Amino acid sequence: MAPTSYTKFHTNLQPISSSLLKAKTTSLTIIASTSNESPHLNPQQSSAAGKMKRLVLSPEGRTKFNALPDRDFYAYPRLVKHVDDGFISTLTNLYRQRLRPEMHILDLMSSWVSHLPDEVNYTRVVGHGLNAQELAKNPRLDYFVVKDLNEDQRFEFESCCFDAVLCTVSIQYLQQPEQVFAEVFRILKPGGLFIVSFSNRLFYEKAISAWREGTAYSRVQFVVQYFQCVEGFTEPEVVRRLPSEDDNKGSDSPVGWIMRLFGLMAGSDPFYAVIAYRNFKPVYD
Ligand SMILES: C[S@@+](CC[C@H](N)C(=O)[O-])C[C@H]1O[C@@H](n2cnc3c(N)ncnc32)[C@H](O)[C@@H]1O
Fold first, then answer.
1. DSSP of 39-106, one letter per residue?
2. Which of 111, 131, 151 to mutate to test the pocket of ligand 1 (most atoms within 8 A of CB)?
3. What is the C-alpha to C-alpha distance for residues 242 and 59, in angstroms, rounded to an integer?
4. Considering its fold, how many domains does the chain have in total?
5. What DSSP designation does 248 have?
6. Sign of torsion, CA 186 31 103 122?
7. How far is it, in rounded angstroms, from Cα 146 to Cα 155?
8. Which end of the chain has the lower number of beta carbons within 10 A, N or C?
9. How far apart are CA 257 and CA 4, in angstroms?
10. Under DSSP, is residue 231 helix (H, G, I), strand (E, B) or coil?
11. Global pTM value
12. Among residues 119, 117, 142, 144, which one has the least CA distance to residue 133?
């Protein structure tokens, strides 16, 4: 297993243990379960939950144009925004609806910005990514972890230690997404959720071929299937927000058209998110 490096800003360096994360509990009521596993069972003792049932991608679908190590590609910090303000405000609103202040959150494949709502203080936010300088600049992170998920899909986090895992505009870079989703299942608490959001932008040379060659529809279907191939996730829910005419106001003027032509002004970024819960979707009091 490749080593994982941990960095924590405010106290000593150490991996997060689930005992640390048990400080606050959430009041919840279970309304539905899509698996036979009771949320009160110790998930370590439950049988098939988290098991990968099948592979979604073919070997060819996992290939990238740039086959050099991802760490090299992300070696220098990119302090840019990867999507436009419309995408970010849709995502932040989704987080406002789905996340709660007492949560322990992992921001997978993160960078220097957070899309979490500013006004909410979460119990703990852990970041993961490939560039330590980017992650160190992210003001929302209590800890961060640097790890190449294409080399090794196992985290050193204990099982059931996060209430929510987020992955923003990065899923297209995973070459072993099935294993990563199984790992996310393992580290989520029962009732915890995984929110995967994406648009149509990408580092072309680093995106897997299945994604590069896909359409908006097939990309959503890939993410849905990544969830479905792991036993115990609830049926994935798809959230879409396609650009409206208002979003593009001004960009169809001659100046807007010329700026778009030269890449100086983008059209609005479409928003897609796929969400599923570990075992059951909680309803909060
Ligand atoms: C387009 S950026 C998105 C960053 C951030 N989620 C955001 O919303 O701004 C893609 C991120 O994926 C991460 N990434 C790419 N390949 C990776 C890999 N093999 N393992 C882990 N992280 C990776 C990089 O660290 C990079 O920050």
1. TTS-TTTSSSTT-B----S-TGGG--S--S-HHHHTSS---S-SS-HHHHHHHHHHHHHH--TT-EEE
2. 111
3. 31
4. 1
5. G
6. positive
7. 10
8. C
9. 46
10. coil
11. 0.81
12. 144
Query: Looking at the DSSP assignment, which residues form a beta bridge with residue 273?
Result: 197, 239
Assess contact for 116 and 125: CB atoms under 8 A: yes
CB of residue 152 inside a 6 A radius of ligand 1: no
Number of the ligand 1 atom closest to the C-alpha atom of 107: 6
Backbone angles phi, psi at 86, to 5 degrees: -65, -45
Q: Backbone dihedral region of 45: left (phi > 0), alpha (psi from -120 to 50 degrees) or beta?
A: alpha
Other CB atoms within 10 A of residue 116 CB = 19
Ligand 1 lined by 71 (C-beta under 6 Å): no
Q: The domain containing residue 180 runs over which residues?
A: 5-284
CB-CB contact of 115 with 271 (8 Å): no
Looking up residue 261, the CATH number of its domain turns out to be 3.40.50.150
Name 255's Cβ contacts closer than 8 Å, sequence gap at least 6.
none
Locate 214 and state its tokens: 């896909």
| 111 within ligand 1 shell (Cβ under 6 A) | yes
Q: Which of 170, 198, 203, 269 to mutate to test the pocket of ligand 1 (most atoms within 8 A of CB)?
A: 170
Q: Kind of pairing, strands 162-168 and 104-108?
A: parallel
**257 to 251, 262, 266, 270: CA distances (angstroms):** 6, 9, 10, 19
* pLDDT tens track for 229-282: 999 999 999 999 977 655 555 555 565 555 454 444 556 999 999 999 999 999
Query: Residues 6 or more apart from 8 whose CB is under 8 A from it?
Result: 14, 142, 143, 144
Q: Are strands 124-129 and 104-108 parallel, antiparallel or unpaired?
A: parallel
